[in-house]
Amino acid sequence: MTANGRETTQLAFARRLIVTDAMKRVAEREGLDPELIRSEIARGRLIIPANIHHLATSLDPMGVGLACTVKINANIGNSAVTSGAEEELKKLHMAVHYGADTVMDLSTGGSIPEIRQAIINASPVPLGTVPIYEALTRVKRIEDLTPEILLDTIESQAKQGVDYMTIHAGILLQYLPLVKRRITGIVSRGGSILAQWMAAHQAQNPLYEHFDEISDILRAHDVSYSLGDSLRPGCLADASDEAQLAELKTLGELTQRAWGRDVQVMIEGPGHVPMDQLEANVKLQQHYCHEAPFYTLGPLVTDVAPGYDHITSAIGAAMVGWYGSSLLCYVTPKEHLGLPNEDDVRNGVIAYKIAAHAADVARGRRGARRRDDALSQARFNFDWEQQFALSLDPETARKMHDETLPDGFYKDAKFCSMCGPKFCSMRISQTTAKILDEAPAPTTP
What is the C-alpha to C-alpha distance for residues 137 and 111, in angstroms, rounded to an integer? Predict the structure, then answer.
């Protein structure tokens, strides 16, 4: 891709009726017509997060949008008190191995640019970041942030090869009073930083004020917007409130401004939302944001399970995926409690692969259920090896099967240790079918 304005981005090419190699690759992966991929990108309903620098090295292009399978993102990244590049690369490999479609580096401490570059160099999947985290490390206080520091940080990350960026441009000064009645206030880290800056300076959000300049930077490198939901609810009581919806409408305005500069856009979403409000949240996003792809964190459908929020959120993720979300941001068991380790990453990814696949099945996507049906047939036939091969987590399936089975029964056993040979319903069903096949046909009285 050339870096001369309108000829840089996948959106610009799609609008000029050009099918790029990246579009062809996405079509191949999705089993779709390349022209459909192009038309969906031109319409703004599908994005290919593919920085021209990452695309030229290790990136295998993928698509995010309603025409594609539901995708999942895994967050990695260090904190100011723990982890470094080696540990984050281990998390990256774990996430990709178990099926993460994108990864976000949310590092907030240490050598952030060096960690990010190591991840970009090693990652075959798109990488997202939140530039304001690094910008904050360049100053002593939040109040010391300037538009110049923010723009410089965004540009340096774009030049490195970041594929999409969370830009919290939708939280405005006039929206801050709307959070006073909330239980959890502003739970977005980027949103809280900007809220404090705006309150201290009594000035408008600099990311909103300089949005067109940011768009020009992103366009030059084909970085996609992930427009941040700074006012997402942090608990069920705060869901779907006036603050959340006010920001959502602003994100719709910013979507059109970004499209006007040929920059690809997806919209971030809540958060913590009761099940009965999930469908309405998806419909509102699609309406206000002109069908731009929806990228949702969870949502968590209950607040009472710290340590198990990969489960509480996967329930919501499966539902919003069914209703129309395109990218599901995983939540690990450590959510609200600490920095995830490798095992937490694995558990989060598996939970969300289940959610995304369930959503594809519910959507009736062509071929989505083939794997389910093939595994079910293997299960009925006691073909353990095929069951393991078709599992989302073959290692765990094999381990659980083997650990309680008597020695010598591994490959040929027509039962598992739960029922044993005498009480296995599928084995009894097979015997019953055989008896019926061999029995004489009933006579008519």
Answer: 10
Which tokens hold the place of 31?
């089993």
- For the CA atoms of the chain, what is the radius of gyration? 24
Which pLDDT belongs to residue 73?
98
Locate tokens 């050339």: which residue?
2
Residue 353: CB atoms within 10 A of its CB come to 21
pTM above 0.85, yes or no: yes
Query: DSSP code of 223?
Result: P
Beta-ladder partners of 294: 267
Report d(CA 445, CA 130) in Å as an integer.
78
Q: In a 10 Å sphere around its CB, with 0-12 CB exposed, 13-18 middle and 19+ buried, how is residue 195 labelled? A: buried
On whether the CB atoms of residues 282 and 321 are closer than 8 A, the answer is no
What lies within 8 Å, CB to CB, of 171 at 6+ separation is 186, 188, 191, 194, 195, 198, 205, 230, 231, 247
Is-contact 217 154, C-beta < 8 A? yes
The label of the residue with tokens 């949502």 reads 299
**Cβ atoms within 10 Å, residue 286:** 19
Tokens of 177: 């009073």
Give per-residue pLDDT as tens, 225-283. Answer: 999 999 999 999 999 999 999 999 999 999 999 999 999 999 999 999 999 999 999 99
CA distance 63 to 326: 9
Q: What is the number of other CB atoms lying within 10 angstroms of the CB of residue 144?
A: 12
What type of residue sits at position 89? L
Max Cα distance, the chain (Å): 94
Only one residue has tokens 């036939």, namely 381
Q: What is the pLDDT of residue 2?
A: 47
Distance CA 293, CA 357 (A): 18
* Tokens representing residue 363 in the block: 């959507």
Amino acid at 171: I
CA-angle at 146, arms to 143 and 148, nearest 5°? 165
Got the DSSP string for 11-80? HHHHHTT---HHHHHHHHHHT--HHHHHHHHHHTSEE----HHHHTTT-----EETTSPPEEEEEE---S
Which regions in the chain score pLDDT beneath 50? 1-6
413 SS3 class: coil
